[in-house]
Amino acid sequence: METKRHLTTDLEEYNVIRSYNVVLSHEDWTLLTDKYDEEDLRVLMKIRTPSFEKMEENIIAEAYVRDPLILNELINIIKSNNRVTRVKIIENVRTKNELRALILLSAKLRGGISELLMNKGAYYIFERISNGLEKWSLVIDDKIFREIILPTLKEYTYSLKIIEKDDGNLVSVKNLLTSKEFEIIYKAYKMGYFDWPKKVDLKELSEELGISKAATLQALRRAMGKLIRNYVDNLV
């Protein structure tokens, strides 16, 4: 019983997940988009896949431009950045008012904002770029954001604006998840399963919990799904 009481008390400190919009500029290729209006150029980072071995991330991005010349300029801007290792246009689609380009790019994680967010266990990350600004939407433990991420962002950015979304999508994990899901996701969080790179793998986590890897993974996915759905539903 003493262990349970201690766990419950300890959980109170880490049971709030908040969603934030973070608007920033820093030393990256995105800064060079400041010479274009948002109507002329905007980029959405759609899919991010980190490579642990190479310390890189592969990104699928959508660029929307008014003029094909701006697309060429954008590609050159991206290529000029020393963190970027590959850039390739996968397809172009012309609409009535603009050109949409699907871009594959690879970039070193070191020094990027995404590295910081992944390392500290952000549950959901989405990035939009325009006017020289990166606009990040994320869901993250509130204590981690305020005490670790925010001070780091203040140190390494030229401009920074934080918008805490308070339109009903403040989540109490204990209210949203079952007690078992809460226990498992909390244990995963404390052991560093969500850190990047991971401090423990699925096998180590499941052994600590005393359940199978399949059951652990299923519970984690179910819990994460609830958290992300709650966030996305409140975006509308």
For the structure shown, list the relevant keywords.
236 residues, alpha+beta, Arc Repressor Mutant, subunit A, 2 domains, 9 strands, elongated, disordered N terminus
Could you characterize what this model shows?
The structure is a single chain. This protein is α+β, with helices and mostly antiparallel strands and 236 residues long. It has two domains: 2-16 and 168-233, Arc Repressor Mutant, subunit A; 25-164, no CATH class. Helix content is 39%, strand content 32%. Strands 1, 2, 3, 4, 5, 6, 7, 8 and 9 form a nine-stranded antiparallel β-sheet that branches. Helix 6 crosses helix 8 (213-233) and helix 7 packs across helix 8. It is elongated and about 60 Å long. It starts with a helix and ends with a helix.
Structural class: alpha+beta
Mean pLDDT: 84
Count of discrete structural domains:
2
Number of strands: 9
Order of helices and strands: HEEEHEEHEEHEEHHHH
Protein name: Bacterio-opsin activator HTH domain protein
Domain HTH bat-type: 177-229
